[in-house]
Structures are given as structure tokens and as C-alpha cells.
Amino acid sequence: MAHSVRPFLMFQNKDAEAAMRFYVSLFADGKVIELVPFAKGEQGPEGSVKTAVFSIAGQAIRVFDSPVKHAFGFTPANSLFVECENETELDKLFAALSKDGRVLMPLADYGFSRKFGWTDDRYGVSWQLNLQ
Fold first, then answer.
1. Residue 28, CB half-sphere, CA atoms under 13 Å: how many?
2. What pLDDT, on a 0 to 100 scale, did the predictor assign at position 3?
């Protein structure tokens, strides 16, 4: 029987720690749970993220800096969906996450939500933000 299921974000440009710390800074309950860097002589570049776990909005997320280059990266087909309690929170998160990223759907009422936005952040991770 599986013990847990959690999102896993694989970075290819040694961005895992910076991204994790950025995400944690945006959420009131955000925290780094575990951070293990590659040591000298290990497969990945020394100091890059061998494994890390952080938590935002009660959800644990694992991150990793891949020492192997892949022909793929993040895609909006997989995103982190955030239910915001109020418009102020939604606007703040959307502004921070979309800065230096790519807006896929600007904040608006699309009929299925009072206010919704979809963006790729500066690290390429896709976020959907919804007003409950």
C-alpha cells in the first residue's frame, strides 16, 4: 500500500532551491521540510539539490536538480492548482508568480469561477489560481 503521493518538480538549471524558497515565501504556512544538497563527488553538481521537500498550503512538494539533461521540461499540462480564500490573496500570488514568467490566462471571470488566472512562473512551473 502506498504511503503517500506528492507532486515532484524536477529542475534542470540548478533552480530547485531558489524556486522552493520563492514558493515558501509566498505562502503564510510555507516551510522547507528537508534540503539535501549533492556533495562533492556525487552525481550532481556540488551544492545543487539532491532532494528537498517543502510545504505550502498544507501540501508537501518534492524538488530535485537533475544532473541529467532531458529533452523535456515543465508543461502547463501539469500545474499546481491554488484555491485562494480572497481576492487580495489571489492578486498577490498571481502578481508574484507571473513576474518574469508567462501568463497563460490573465486574471478574469471565465464563467467557471469568479476570478481565475493561469501562469507559468520564472522557473517554468505552471500555476492555476482560483478564487473560491
1. 4
2. 85
Question: Nine-digit cell at 28?
Answer: 503564510
SS3 label, residue 57: coil
Q: Is 3 left (phi over 0), alpha (psi -120 to 50) or beta?
A: alpha
Q: Give every residue of the chain whose pLDDT is below 50, as ranges.
A: none
Query: Which 3 state secondary structure label does DSSP give 6?
Result: coil
Distance from C-alpha of 67 to C-alpha of 38, rounded to nearest angstrom: 10
- Please give the Cα distance from 48 to 13 (Å, whole number): 9
Please check whether residue 29 is in contact with residue 61, taking contact to mean a CB–CB distance below 8 angstroms.
no
Angle at 39 between CA 33 and CA 44, to 5 degrees: 90
Question: Cα–chain-centroid distance for residue 127?
Answer: 7
